[in-house]
Amino acid sequence: MLENSIFAILSLFLVLGSLGMISFKHTIFSAFSFLLAMLALAGLFALLENSFLFLAQIMVSVGAVVVLGLMVVISLGSIEKNIPDEPYKFYWIGISTILVIPLALLIYKALTSLHAHFQETKEGYGELKYVGEKLFAEWVLPFEAVSVLLLSAMVGAIVIARKEEYFKKENYFDDHKQPEDTK
Amino acid sequence: MIPEQFFILATLLFSIGLVGVVSRRNLFIVYLSIELMLSSVNLLLVTFSRLDQSMNGTVMALLLIAIIAAEAAIFLAVIIQLYRSKRSLDSDKFSQLTQNKGQL
User: Fold this and answer.
1) Which of A19, B33, B70, B85 is the Cys-Cys partner for B17 at CB 3.0 to 4.6 Å?
2) Fold (CATH) for B3-93
């Protein structure tokens, strides 16, 4: 009974946060709604007895992704003239909701055809020790692949977001010009 | 607590994310909606991990969190680059690759 009420509260926050995210006009309110949704999702991971993923979700999704996003919002999206004017926003949201409903029903039908039930968890389920054992015994190759992916994403983000003019050869030499000789 | 509750929640989150991607023009909200869709898959993976009583789903969800972080870095860099080119966050203004030169 307690689990059900916790689930109700967390899912309420999750759905309200995500609905607020797609309906606010100002980007900063959307980002804070997304923060609320991610915190509620971390709570759901805890409810599913995955204590390690609860921590990982808070550290990565809330601590890194949303904060990085908020930095970009504060630098670009908080100025009124940068926000696109969307007078027919709720009209488009309504139309796309009608279009998405059949897909959602299909996904739900496919998932419920499993007829699965929760059982009592085994001893030590979800603890960091067992996650680590699994990660470094059976999942080593995906783990290393993810590390390469993160490295390449870091380099790619720097290359995409830099100012191109500065790295062109002539501009580089303009900035580092030697003092001209007097003729 | 039954698994169907979590299935409904994951489906709802995925649908809300899809609606956000389709209907909004603000680039940043499109990005947050994609994040929401990835997170709904993450919730589903954790639910399956709990049903299966093995750690495989947990490890997969952990790797997916790393992929979400990589996607966030790339997407935010792309948003900054797009903003720099047109001074706008409106996705309708970035239509150089369409044939009709920005006129819908």
Assistant:
1) B33
2) Helix Hairpins (1.10.287)
